[in-house]
Amino acid sequence: MPEYNRRAFRGPKGYQAGRIGELVVMDYLQQHGIAYRKVYSTRHDIVVHGKRWEIKTKERSVEPRLEFDCTIPNYNADHQDPEVYVFVSLLSKDRRSDDLLRFESAWILGAISSEYFHEICTTHAPSDPPDVNGWVPTVACHNVPANALHPIHLLRSTP
Question: Is residue 27 part of a domain?
Fold first, then answer.
């Protein structure tokens, strides 16, 4: 794995969450006998069946729900070029802590093609009023609801 990028929006804590999300997905793939290649670039994380996957992880203080948003910050959208986004949520006891033991549970919420994500996403900015979940973004971003994702097991077969 690469070293922490000190320019990350949430700094090392954000990279901890992101790397754990990647490990959760890679563990799932390995347990199901699905071959993947680690890339760890800023453009995408892994390659599965010849497709570039970007794993997006959100650290949460509550269990994820289907109406929650899955987010791609604008600062990532400009340089990443995956064919598939996979979204992971980590339940954290304390988002302010940098202790790895703060994570209690992990969920692979699902996946969506990059093309479809950009077709259906909504755009949000920190100046926007809270959404129906009471969420206000800290950075400009694009979102899709978790219920728009496909279960990751649907991606298990070869193309």
Answer: yes
